[in-house]
Design a protein that fits this description.
Layout: H1 3-15, H2 17-20, E1 29-31, E2 44-47, E3 53-60, E4 77-79, E5 85-89, E6 102-108, E7 111-117, E8 128-131, H3 133-136, H4 138-142, E9 147-159, E10 162-175
Parallel strand pairs: 3-10, 4-10
Antiparallel strand pairs: 1-2, 2-3, 3-5, 5-8, 6-7, 6-9, 9-10
Length: 176
């Protein structure tokens, strides 16, 4: 393994472990983003067969800067009552977009549970979005049974009947 590739694997493990730690390796998906390309915590994955590209989400109990440096504290597990902030990166600049095109699909324990449509467009040059998931999903979390739950977030863009995945992330949520 080349030094650059080792660095990338090490970097991905440290910086985005919470987002990709539960992801299963897949021979048809590879990381196509250089380690030192800004923003430093954004990792872009590409499905070789189709060329589909998507990026990662990171989570924390406080707002994460778009260009946060490697080593920025992130979390992959939260307890009821904790703030949950997500920084979801885009694989490329979004370009022109309209209100209602950007949608987060939330899955809890493998079952589709919520769809969040955003009523504000992002700037065309945006490379990420910051979302207060603890607030956005407060009602959903309040209805969960006691115990640990796996929460997956898949950001999509819907134009007409075409849906494109933009980002993916997941975390553990524990309700007492």
């Amino acid at each position: 393994m080349s030094s650059a590739r080792r660095t990338l694997v090490f970097f991905a493990t440290l910086a985005i472990g919470p987002s990709l730690a539960l992801a299963r390796p897949h021979p048809l998906v590879h990381i196509s983003h250089a380690v030192d390309a800004p923003p430093p915590l954004r990792i872009v994955l590409e499905e070789k067969r189709t060329g589909a590209r998507w990026a990662n989400c990171l989570f924390s109990t406080r707002e994460l800067a778009e260009r946060a440096p490697p080593g920025t504290p992130t979390r992959d597990s939260f307890e009821a009552g904790e703030a949950i902030w997500g920084r979801c990166y885009l694989p490329d600049a979004l370009g022109a977009n309209r209100p209602g095109e950007l949608i987060d699909v939330i899955t809890i324990d493998g079952k589709r549970a919520w769809e969040q449509t955003y009523d504000r467009a992002l700037p065309s040059e945006a490379q990420a979005r910051l979302v207060p998931y603890g607030e956005v999903l407060r009602t959903l979390f309040a209805g969960l049974k006691a115990g640990a739950h796996r929460v997956e977030i898949e950001g999509t863009r819907k134009r007409g009947s075409r849906v494109t995945r933009l980002y993916h992330g997941e975390f553990r949520y524990v309700r007492p």
